[in-house]
């Protein structure tokens, strides 16, 4: 019973050491570093596209247009780096940004010749990493600054570097994830009905999209619930729940076992349904955006939609370590299955006061990767 639970407002103190302030050089320093790093990675991707870019993604974007943007990114990195020296603080950040950009220029810069690329099944998704990072910063970080739930929560909050590492791994490994997911789904080839798939593809794309959303949501609901309620699986999923301050980057934190298994599970209904490319593309886009959105430090008025789709408030309660919220709100897209199976927790206008796990996890990438093993060993020693 949760009727007697006394909900409290979360208090977030402003961390002035991590705060960005105009005129100090910290903003320009980090801009220089990130633009320099992205520029260098972009040049490498243009030099070795067969090994460092994603076959599926190359078919979507205009490489020549992006190379034009790369030129401006490199020059802005130098500009921000020099500005950091002018402001006389955080010069080390400016130096790193200038150094990275100089290397990018030295190995070809924005003048690397474009060339046709043979498809490689396994490659690093540098292009996916770069585009996803820039898109997320532009869309979701902007929304968080305009409509923050917790105004005092800083961009460089505790654990942001660890989550950035997860973000990089999840995007660089996209080819391996896709191969594994496709291979896992193909084992159910015996269940594919070509006539059913052809009939479904003849229906409106929006109907197909709705069917895919509900099918994927059903699978993800139960996969998510098993990670919570099966003791052997929980240490894997606990890595994702170890985040104590949610924002657009926090959703990236996830053990590689869960990342691979989750993609494989959601691929199964997509494979069996065999919807049109248009419906599939819409679903993949919406699912990717929603996965980031629901972790955001964002207080948008969703109105009646909060009772239909998974919103930041709904999913934030899933990440809460408060008693009424533990093991609730498993859904990824709609709240339907949490409502049907009575695992929904959405107490009016209240938001969580505490996030994270009830027991602390290691705060390093290696420590969290090994946590499913070390947690079991620690139990045996007790």
Automatic annotation (TrEMBL):
Chief localization: membrane
InterPro entries, A to Z: Fatty_acid_hydroxylase, Sterol_desaturase/TMEM195
Membrane topology value: Multi-pass membrane protein
Name listed for the protein in its UniProt record: Sterol desaturase
GO cellular component: endomembrane system; membrane
Record keyword Transmembrane present: yes
Residues covered by the Fatty acid hydroxylase domain: 210-343
Keyword Transmembrane helix: yes
Keywords linked to the UniProt accession: Lipid metabolism, Membrane, Oxidoreductase, Transmembrane, Transmembrane helix
GO MF term set: glyceryl-ether monooxygenase activity; iron ion binding
Localization, UniProt: Endomembrane system
Membrane-crossing residue ranges in chain numbering: 27-49, 69-86, 93-112, 124-143, 164-185, 205-222
UniProt organism field: Phormidium tenue NIES-30
GO biological process, one term: lipid biosynthetic process
């Amino acid at each position: 019973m949760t009727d007697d639970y006394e909900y409290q407002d979360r208090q977030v103190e402003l961390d002035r050491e991590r705060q960005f302030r105009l005129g100090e050089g910290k903003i320009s320093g980090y801009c220089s570093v990130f633009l320099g790093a992205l520029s260098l990675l972009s040049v490498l991707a243009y030099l070795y596209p067969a090994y460092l870019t994603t076959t599926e993604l190359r078919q979507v974007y205009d490489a020549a247009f992006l190379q034009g943007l790369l030129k401006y990114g490199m020059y802005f990195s130098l500009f921000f780096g020099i500005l950091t020296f002018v402001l006389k603080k955080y010069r080390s950040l400016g130096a790193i940004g200038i150094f990275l950009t100089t290397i990018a220029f030295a190995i070809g810069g924005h003048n690397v010749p474009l060339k046709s690329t043979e498809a490689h099944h396994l490659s690093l998704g540098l292009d996916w990493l770069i585009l996803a990072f820039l898109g997320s910063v532009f869309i979701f970080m902007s929304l968080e600054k305009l409509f923050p739930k917790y105004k005092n929560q800083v961009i460089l909050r505790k654990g942001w570097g660890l989550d950035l590492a997860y973000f990089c791994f999840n995007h660089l490994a996209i080819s391996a994830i896709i191969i594994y997911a496709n291979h896992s789904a193909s084992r159910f080839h015996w269940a594919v009905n070509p006539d059913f798939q052809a009939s479904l593809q003849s229906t409106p794309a929006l109907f197909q999209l709705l069917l895919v959303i509900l099918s994927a949501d059903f699978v993800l609901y139960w996969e998510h619930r098993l990670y919570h309620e099966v003791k052997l699986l929980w240490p894997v999923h606990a890595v994702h729940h170890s985040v104590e301050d949610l924002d657009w980057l926090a959703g990236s934190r996830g053990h590689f076992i869960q990342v691979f298994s989750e993609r494989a599970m959601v691929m199964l209904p997509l494979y069996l349904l065999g919807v049109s490319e248009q419906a599939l593309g819409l679903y993949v886009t919406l699912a990717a955006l929603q996965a980031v959105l629901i972790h955001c430090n964002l207080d948008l008025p969703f109105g009646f939609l909060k009772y239909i789709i998974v919103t930041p408030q709904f999913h934030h309660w899933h990440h809460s370590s408060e008693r009424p919220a533990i093991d609730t709100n498993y859904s990824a897209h709609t709240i339907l299955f949490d409502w049907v199976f009575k695992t929904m927790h959405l107490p009016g206008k209240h938001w969580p006061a505490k996030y994270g796990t009830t027991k602390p996890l290691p705060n390093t990438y290696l420590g969290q990767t090994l946590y499913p093993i070390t947690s079991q060993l620690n139990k045996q020693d007790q």
